[in-house]
Amino acid sequence: MDVQDFCKQMEQQLVTFEQQLGSIENELDSRGTKAKERILPVVGDVKNLMTELKLQKDRLEKECPSEWSDDKNKMEDLVGSIGSNIDRAKGQLSQGDVGG
What's the pTM? Predict the structure, then answer.
């Protein structure tokens, strides 16, 4: 896989994450304060990680280095972290509002 193909794959992953995050945020709008207090920090973490991934992707596309395995590994780690945080937020949403 070359750099451009990898970057396209990361762009697709970002779109998927943005859709999932939008779904979580829409669900949060209908929830009480307790749920928001629990989940908003996770949403913030996801947004920060997504920004970092996008910046890495953009830099990689622009520079197009011949050696990019470290970048690839870092970006794959970011994808894993984002996915874990999204799963965590979904899990907390499914717990419902207790006293919200």
Answer: 0.89
